[in-house]
Amino acid sequence: MEYEISGLIQREIPALLIRENVPWRELTSLKVGGIIPVVLEPENDILLFNLLRLCAEKSIRFSVLGNGSNTVGSDSPLLNPVIRLCRGEFGNIRYGRHHVTVGAGVRLSEFIRNTAQNGLGGLSSLVGIPGTIGGALKMNAGAHGVCLSDFLTEMCGVDFAGNPWSAIKNEINWEYRTATIPEDVIITAVIFSLPECGVDEDGLIRAELRRRAFVEPHAGNAGCFFRNISETETAGRLIDEAGCKDLTVGGAKVSSSHANYLINSDNASENDILELMVEVRRRVADKFGFYLMPEVCFSNPDSERRFLAAVPSPKITVLKGGCGSEREISLISGNAVANALRRAGYDVTEIDLTEMKLLPEMSCADVVFPVLHGSWGEGGGIQELMESHGIEFVGSGSVSCRLVLDKITSKELMDDLKLPNATWSIVESPKQGLPEPLHFPVVIKPPCEGSTVGIEIVKNSIEWKPALERAFKFDSRLLVEEFIDGIEATVGVINGEAMPVIEIIPPKGKFYDYDAKYLHKSGETLYLCPPVHIPESQQKMAQEAALKFYHASGARDLLRVDFFMKSDGSISLLEGNSIPGFTGSSLVPKAARQSGISFERLCVMLVKNAQARKLSAV
Q1: Could you tell me the pTM of the whole model?
Q2: Residue 487 pairs with which residues in a beta bridge?
Q3: Which of 84, 233, 371, 618 would disulfide-bridge 229, Cβ 3.0–4.6 Å?
Q4: Which CATH architecture has domain 404-603?
């Protein structure tokens, strides 16, 4: 079959170089696999365009190979030809007055050395990255805080149907080791804008190559095998801490010098490499809950499917949105959680929930992760629905959620626990006067709203009635409490452990309202962790009070408890929040990060808690 394809292509495009029965070891740095029956090596855009159009017309499937530095060859001969950009204009570098145009087949290290010789720099930290320009851009290659895409002006290419394609830098989303360059596009040439190099660019290049040579193995390898979860949760460290260094399967081995390198130590086969990758993924998943994803490319698509199926990723459904006043914040938090779990290797489905009903995506999930703020997510309704159908989820149960959301029942619990809080009372009519023993100034709060929605600060009797009328639009009864003049702070509790205190400083003259939290029209709010103006003794008091409230309210997994720190050294507990804001910069994740817990690890910890409850219930 493959030789029939070779003959057809030769007849239709006689100028195209066709190679047959090429060993994978000649074309890849890992040097595993058998032979490639047909390799196609066009020398210019015209030949490539004609080849792709012919493949589209004749329904010929193919794969694309660059320098082969991140490719695992196939033990079995491939039925489809391999297209390789390594000749002619794909290997050219051309200099203009302000830009450099480089063929996609040029090796990145060669390009960096060449530009340095021509007085241009900025790329020295990337010189040790193997592979070609095209492949490096597809994965948004980078090192030491520098990415190749930082210097990009424009890319040119062709899609699999043979149609020209191009994009400027801003048309692509560049994220950590990934880019939104379409999967069916082959990059052919790239235009860069580079700064003039420093006085010792060559010295920087040599230093980086020496550093790489010291830490990277010299045996056959494909570079880093697994994607980092994040910049702080690196695959190499996770593999090392999971005890995988020197782990061996057949002729494949985890490098002792860099755990994210799997090396061909003794004539390894593709299957050796695959089984070793599976064992590494299993050990890291068992120890940390991270499901490492391959950074290498499998020439045989079945191999990647086998790898993923051997240690399947848990299915997580993230609930976000809702119809409450905090819908937009919930959408942001839900996106952040979903993306963090995807980076951690989970199979994530996102649901913008607009009705309080059970959906198929919730029933088929291993765990549901509700990120629904306000009464929609924290009122216990969605939790009660999942409890009634035996669906495991992250966070507190329905009873605890209702208690914590309702500021009045929370106040009653605080009083029962003798936790310090502001003097309070209930108002049930807009005609009611200020209850005794309160005196102005006071704060009026709808009991079941979040993010300071509906809150009124009332300074005197003249403001009392209008403020009540506005607040009663949110609820039929209101909480009224004394106004506390102090420093606002918050304590996150995760898995029964109090996180570091965060000091909150809203813009001058403002209280910590919706604008100070999210919109910042009046200026930025400062979040200080560790606190600057709160004594350690007060911080400890707040952490102890937060833990008492967490346990007494029946909370699980996480809770945020807000406080005022008074000038006399005492504290006043405000309220709890069972589903707090959950972006990487939100308060609980910020405090967790101060404790050495990354956002990805935090999300995984919460999922693992829910998984453990599910297993214990069986």
Answers
A1: 0.91
A2: 565
A3: 233
A4: 2-Layer Sandwich (3.30)
